[in-house]
Each structure stands twice: as C-alpha cells, then as structure tokens.
Design goal:
single chain; alpha+beta; NADH Oxidase; 2 domains; 4-stranded antiparallel beta sheet; 7 helices; 46% helix; globular
Length: 210
C-alpha cells in the first residue's frame, strides 16, 4: 500500500469489530508516530496505551460522552511534555510548537494504522483536566489527542473536500493560483499499480525476497 492510498482512503472510524489488536501492530503505529518532525527535534510526544474497559469508559465520558471510544480494543492518548518544549522555545513552544509536533505525530499514526488495515479516529474534544486525572499525568504532561484503534466495522464515504483552487494563492494571499493536480494523481496511481504488479510477479518467481 503506497502513501497516497493511505492519505486519500483513510477515514475516521467510529465502529469497531470485537477483535483484539496485536501489540506488535500497536508498536509499529507508535514507531511511526515517533518519526514525525518536531521543533528542534525535541520529540515531546508521550503515549498512554489503554486497554482496560473501566479506563476506556472514563476516557469516553471525559471526551464529552463520545461512547464509541470505549468500543475500540485499544485507545492511545497522545500527550505533550510541555516542560521539555517550553525549556527550548518558551512561550512559542507552549502555544504553538507542541500542537504542530503532536499533530504531525498523530497523522503518522493514523496513516500507519490504515496501512495495517486498522481503523482510527482523531479525537480532540475532551476535558483536559479530567483526562489528566484519569491517567494520573504529571502537571507538565498535557493530553492532546485520543486515538481509538481497532479493526473497522464500517466504511464511511469520503467527506466533501474544498477544491484546492479555492484555497490556494500565488506569491501573496488573495491572488488565485490554479493547480493541475488531478492528472498528476492519476499518473501516480498508475505508476504505483505498475510497481505493485512487478513486485507481485517477482515474488511469484522468487526473484525478490522481502
């Protein structure tokens, strides 16, 4: 599965199969998250993995009663070490960089999960204080995102996207700039399809070992 498949086909999943997720897959997802860029390579992300049903129920309640969270086999709360980012970047680190870094980390995790045939949902609506209390977080660790993970039991349609030409400008804001991206996307899809077919053929004749 190529990166464009993951980006274009990933969906927010809120219905999960009653099937456990192997710890090795969770490890891969976390590993992908830690390969995101971060300001000054501070890597302030911290992870709390939750499988206990009682804990998941508390998390769902603190996330404004988003009950689907507790139905996922695994929930990961992605946090930021605010002390670490503020020591290097001060107020700007506390107000901006941590959010940028954790956002990049979470996106890596979502794409990695999709590549592993797992469903996720990026949950950002919750009571910070309650989540911190539930997870017994130190005062310098801030919860930023909740990621329920499991095998999807639904196939949501692609939500409508704003056309790129409506939100892209050239040299300065306000000057429209139209990008011919659709032909390029078709070319990319064709190229990856050819590569995948060659790999499958090579594997068939044992010319490539993975």
């Amino acid at each position: 599965m190529n990166v464009f498949d993951c980006i274009f086909n990933r969906r927010s999943i809120r219905k999960f199969e009653k099937k456990d997720v192997d710890d090795k897959l969770i490890g891969l997802i976390l590993y992908a998250g830690t390969h995101a860029p971060s300001a000054g390579n501070v890597q302030e992300w911290r992870f709390v993995i939750i499988k206990d049903m009682e804990q998941k129920e508390k998390i769902a309640k603190a996330a404004w009663d988003q009950d689907f969270i507790k139905t996922a086999p695994v929930v990961i709360v992605v946090c930021a070490d605010m002390e670490k980012i503020s020591l290097k970047y001060g107020e700007r680190g506390e107000k901006l960089y941590f959010a940028q870094d954790i956002g990049a980390c979470v996106q890596n995790m979502l794409l990695a999960a999709y590549a592993l045939d797992l469903g996720t949902c990026y949950v950002g609506a919750f009571d910070d204080k309650k989540i911190s209390d539930i997870l017994q977080l130190p005062n310098y660790i801030r919860p930023v995102a909740i990621i329920p993970i499991g095998y999807p039991a639904e196939k949501p349609d692609m939500p409508k996207r704003i056309p790129i030409e409506n939100i892209t400008y050239f040299n300065y804001y306000g000057k429209k700039y139209e990008i011919e991206y659709k032909p390029l996307l078709e070319y990319i899809k064709m190229a990856f399809k050819e590569i995948e077919e060659k790999v499958k053929l090579s594997l068939k004749y044992k010319k490539i070992k993975l």
